[in-house]
Amino acid sequence: MTGETVLIAAFSARALAASARRAGYRPLVVDCFGDLDTVALAHDSRCLPARVQVGFTPRPLLAALESLTAAAPTPPVGLVLGTGFECNPRLVARLGQHYRLIGNDAETIARAKDPRELFPLLDGLGIPHPETQLVAPPVSDGWLMKRIGGSGGLHIHRCPAEPRPDKRRYFQREASGEPISILGLVSDKSAAFAASRQWTSPLPRRPFRYGGAAGSLPLDPDLEARLIEMSLEASEALKLQGLVSFDYLVADGTPALLEVNPRPGATLDVFDDASGTLFKAHVEASRGGDPAALLSADWHPPVARAAAFLYADRGPLTAGAVDWPDWAADRPRPGSVIGAGEPLATVIAEGDDIDAVEAACFERLGMLETLLYDTSNKQGARQ
Predict the structure, then answer these.
(1) Among 252, 270, 298, which residue terminates a domain?
(2) Using one digit for the tens of pLDDT, what is the confidence trace for 246-296?
(3) pTM score > 0.85 for this model?
(4) Measured in whole angstroms, how far is the alpha carbon of residue 119 from the centre of its chain?
(5) What's the domain range around 325?
(6) Domains held by the chain: number
(7) 191 vs 59, 225, 230, 239, 291, CA distance in Å?
């Protein structure tokens, strides 16, 4: 262990805390769940409520970070932000006044997530993307409505016939193709990329809810080169730094860029290794180093790994005392009340074949769902 502490804030911080711990840091964590494994991984932690649409409330978040910093054994090297901040660059700017941000600053996040900035920039670079506009289309069929700064697919809906005016929304023509995500590790000096395929876990009112991802995805060499070229051009134009990701749709071998996520994402679970090399490289990028050199020397991800989210789609439940399988993460504390449709846990599988690990993930989703609901029902029957 390096002995260095690092602040981490995210809706769900377990994956970042695990990578930081593997990298030798002492993670000081603020998130919205306070799951068993997150608390166990953290040197110290605070659990705060937050809303997906608007993120964290500034005053409680700052108080939690100040409390963690005051109690830390060493001054934190900086603050890593995960999901929950793209919708509020002003909060990121405020945090940047108090802490050294490891990753992208408020201005960069705003440019990456604001459709008025991002899509004209992509046009200038010649990077294809679906037709995108700020005003509702006269005919809604074939159009999606998205929330600026949204994440996890929950912000994406099919455009209603008469959407209410909302300056936080924008509209994008629906396109078909294979969803491919590119994880990037970028800095002023170097860049490295890895591909995964993603899938949704749809509900009638949330048709694009994130389901999971599997990698490393083998790609046609020409397609791979084009995806890397486009991701690198966007990274340089936006001045991205550290761990980021790019969501594409690929149809007939032609990629179109849907969104840029200027922070570590869900595929950290897919691509990190036993030494937390991705977290080390994220910190190295923020220090002006050469993260790609670190990856080429030390990064040893599995041949194939998949990670998928389990949601409480069978209805609300109260978490019981569970004998957790070692392939399950984001484990709710006994007594936690999980509402219908809310995230419940994560399942992970790894091996030598991407199709096999993806299939294992789906099998484990069913097994864990049965275990958690059975445990909840038995606990309820005893009360």
Answers:
(1) 298
(2) 999 999 999 999 999 999 999 999 999 999 999 999 999 998 888 888 888
(3) yes
(4) 21
(5) 304-382
(6) 3
(7) 36, 13, 12, 12, 7
